[in-house]
Amino acid sequence: QVQLVESGGGLVQAGGSLRLSCQASGRTFSNYAMGWFRQAPGKEHEFVAAIRWSSGSTYYADSMKGRFTISRDNAKNTVYLQMNSLKPEDTALYYCAVAVTPKPLTTFALRRNLTYDYWGQGTQVTVSS
After folding, report:
1. DSSP sequence for 8-42
2. 3-state class of 49 per DSSP?
3. Cα distance between residue 82 and residue 20, in whole Å
4. How far is CA 44 from the centre of its chain?
């Protein structure tokens, strides 16, 4: 079992920044990848960014490239999402997720919900115009 706790969400004006954190505990020695997803009211779950735990390779949704940065701290079992130049359309509940079971982690797979085994409760990000 792995527990994920997100933090860092809040209310920010357009153009501002936030840094989300997600700390993993439990069976974290077998982390393969961690990702961030988001869901806005009335919209589908959306991939934001992912990071391979061993190599640190990162992947982003096109709309987040250049604005968001995912990073990890192996010692703290924590993944971060630095969000800059925030827009009102970034308003959503942001979730982190972890993949701990062996599986092909292709670029395509890292963008899919089903790749991840455990999910956090989410942290709300609201961007005002």
Report:
1. --EEEETT--EEEEEEEEESGGG--EEEEEEE-TT
2. strand
3. 6
4. 15
Answer yes or no: are the C-beta atoms of 49 and 61 closer than 8 Å. yes
User: How confident is the model over 25-72, as pLDDT tens digits?
Assistant: 887 666 789 999 999 999 999 999 999 988 899 999 998 989 999 999
Whether the CB-CB separation of 30 and 12 falls below 8 Å is answered with no
Distance, in Å, from the CA atom of 12 to the CA atom of 60, rounded to the nearest integer, reads: 22
Give the pLDDT confidence of 80-114 residue by residue, as tens digits: 999 999 999 999 999 999 998 887 889 999 999 99
Rounded to whole angstroms, the Cα distance separating 31 from 108 reads: 18
Q: Is 99 helix (H, G, I), strand (E, B) or coil?
A: strand
